[in-house]
């Protein structure tokens, strides 16, 4: 067998935590169930099928802990099961008006129900653990509620990470050694905290390595490896301006049959209004999948050939995306993904996980990373820019209140645990992202300020010695935000 031209790592990141609302997740349940039905079910079923063929190290999967909680939550499991049934009924209701579309949607909904009832009735964790134990995937951990790490004080950052890693260990039985750093956010020195937490690898965006992403790189004086997202490869699929999902023959995400909620049209053209879009044609879409999968394999192979020529040995290309792209935003994404994962080895490209790449010695010289993220400008402007100065100030107050309220005590304290939970929710990076991108900005500010108000109220009550009042206040919330039952505020020990 000839030596592979190089190694390819696909990293997917599952992250919809802003849907969580006081534990029962009612705001945005539709978003969660759509992503669950159209992305999480087919992508993991694809991995299951390939693993059944004896394939291993297929992809690296990050699941934000707060999303993992939703995917295991009994309320959410009942809800998505009902949603899948509703999808089937919507297809039936459209049969008289749109017979071909209704038949396709009936088959898709029935297949999704079968997958859910076979693999998901007890939540995501048993399925993820099975795939992880079979070495089909590497599961990445991360901080509990996806905060933007560079803006956190080191003690709060360590607490958020420990809570998240513990959550993954509780659910999967294994503590992750790799993380998807939220928003790929990095500040110099964060690698020291990663090393202390047992994290051995994390993801940064390509510009943080000045595009030199052909090998993983130890950061600073640690053995913690930074893997750089290869934008030349990644942007072939999805970029701020283009990518395969915008192709004319793929199903259009934004055009609905409003009576049923089903999607009857293909993209047709980027400037074509919804009423002028052509009907979706599965045959045309399948041909586009085959064409774009072949193009991607070509791009990966050419990229790895160039990397090998530059560094003098076979190297690495890492493509990283939101999981929700595959099936939710891009209907044909799972089919494209299967075609790529089958074709890459046939083209002489080794497919593996980040862990597999590290074990194979695809590691270069140590590097000093600059402050960075994968957001606009590849800096921190999305989470610390002028538009969100009020949220940055709010997060600073939350951290101060948290650090002042949870210090001391030997026994575990449910009031301090509740305060710490609210603080972690207030510190989510999603609030600033939604404001900066003007996506439900009012809702984001409401959520951030609501959690922050709870933190400051509990801190004030505890500081005044009014414990009974604090207990009544937490009880009035009905345990709504008890996302992490294992969260222990005693682990936050300011130095």
Q: How many beta-strand runs?
A: 9
Helix content: 40-55%
CATH class of the largest domain: Alpha Beta
Total of DSSP H or I helical runs spanning 4+ residues: 17
Q: What's the mean pLDDT score?
A: 94
Give the H and E element order.
EHEHHHHEHEHEEEHHEHEHHHHHHH
Q: What is the makeup of the main sheet?
A: 5 strands, parallel
CATH homologous superfamily designation of the largest domain: Glycoside hydrolase 38, N terminal domain
Kindly describe this structure.
The protein is of the alpha/beta class and 495 residues long. It folds into 2 domains: 6-141 and 176-359, 7-stranded beta/alpha barrel (Alpha-Beta Barrel), CATH 3.20.110; 385-491, Up-down Bundle (immunoglobulin/albumin-binding domain-like), CATH 1.20.1430.10. It is 49% helix and 9% strand. The protein is built from 17 helices and 9 strands. It has helices spanning 29-52, 65-72, 74-93, 99-119, 124-133, 154-172, 190-196, 231-237, 282-311, 333-346, 354-359, 381-384, 389-405, 414-426, 429-436, 441-463, 467-476; strands at residues 6-14, 59-63, 137-140, 178-179, 201-205, 217-218, 225-229, 316-322, 349-352. The strands form 2 sheets. Strands 1, 2, 3, 8 and 9 form a 5-stranded parallel sheet that branches. A 4-stranded mixed sheet has the order 4-5-7-6. Helix 7 links the parallel strand 4 and strand 5 (201-205). The radius of gyration is 23 Å and the shape is globular.
Task: Lay out the secondary structure.
Layout: E1 6-14, H1 29-52, E2 59-63, H2 65-72, H3 74-93, H4 99-119, H5 124-133, E3 137-140, H6 154-172, E4 178-179, H7 190-196, E5 201-205, E6 217-218, E7 225-229, H8 231-237, H9 282-311, E8 316-322, H10 333-346, E9 349-352, H11 354-359, H12 381-384, H13 389-405, H14 414-426, H15 429-436, H16 441-463, H17 467-476
Parallel strand pairs: 1-2, 1-8, 1-9, 2-3, 4-5, 5-7
Antiparallel strand pairs: 6-7
């Amino acid at each position: 067998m000839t030596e592979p031209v190089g190694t390819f790592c696909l990293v997917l990141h599952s992250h919809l935590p802003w849907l969580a609302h006081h534990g029962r997740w009612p705001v945005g349940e539709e978003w969660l169930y759509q992503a669950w039905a159209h992305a999480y079910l087919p992508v993991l079923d694809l991995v299951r099928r390939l693993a059944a063929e004896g394939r291993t190290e297929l992809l690296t999967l990050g699941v934000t802990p707060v999303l993992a909680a939703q995917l295991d939550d009994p309320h959410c499991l009942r809800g998505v099961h009902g949603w899948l049934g509703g999808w089937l009924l919507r297809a039936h209701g459209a049969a008289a008006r749109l017979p071909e579309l209704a038949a396709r949607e009936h088959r898709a909904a029935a297949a999704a129900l079968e997958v859910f009832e076979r693999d998901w009735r007890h939540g995501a964790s048993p399925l993820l653990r099975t795939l992880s134990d079979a070495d089909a995937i590497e599961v990445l951990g991360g901080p509990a509620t996806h905060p933007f790490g560079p803006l956190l004080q080191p003690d709060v950052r360590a607490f958020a990470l420990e809570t998240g890693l513990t959550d993954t260990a509780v659910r999967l039985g294994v503590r992750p050694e790799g993380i998807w750093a939220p928003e790929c956010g990095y500040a110099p020195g964060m690698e020291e905290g990663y090393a202390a937490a047992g994290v051995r690898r994390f993801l940064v965006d390509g510009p943080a390595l000045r595009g030199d992403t052909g090998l993983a790189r130890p950061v600073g004086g640690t053995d913690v490896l930074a893997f750089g997202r290869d934008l030349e490869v990644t942007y072939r699929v999805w970029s701020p301006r283009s990518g395969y999902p915008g192709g004319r023959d793929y199903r259009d995400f934004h055009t609905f049959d409003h009576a049923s909620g089903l999607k009857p049209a293909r993209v047709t053209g980027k400037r074509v209004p919804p009423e002028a879009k052509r009907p979706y044609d599965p045959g045309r879409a399948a041909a586009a999948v085959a064409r774009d999968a072949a193009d991607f394999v070509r791009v990966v192979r050419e990229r790895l050939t160039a990397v090998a020529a530059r560094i003098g040995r076979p190297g690495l290309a890492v493509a990283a995306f939101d999981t929700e792209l595959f099936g939710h935003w891009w209907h044909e994404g799972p089919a494209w993904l299967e075609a790529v994962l089958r074709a890459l080895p046939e083209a002489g490209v080794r497919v593996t996980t980040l862990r597999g790449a590290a074990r194979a010695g695809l590691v270069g010289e140590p590097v000093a990373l600059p402050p960075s993220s994968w957001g606009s400008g590849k800096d921190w402007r999305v989470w610390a820019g002028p538009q969100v100065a009020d949220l940055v100030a709010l997060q600073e107050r939350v951290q101060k209140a948290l650090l002042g309220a949870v210090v001391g005590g030997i026994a575990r304290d449910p009031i301090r645990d509740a305060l710490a939970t609210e603080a972690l929710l207030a510190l989510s990076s999603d609030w600033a992202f939604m404001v900066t991108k003007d996506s439900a900005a009012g809702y984001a500010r409401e959520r951030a300020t609501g959690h922050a108000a709870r933190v400051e109220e509990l801190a004030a009550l505890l500081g005044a010695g009014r414990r009974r009042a604090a207990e009544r206040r937490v009880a009035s919330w009905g345990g709504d935000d008890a996302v992490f039952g294992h969260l222990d505020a005693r682990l936050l020990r300011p130095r």
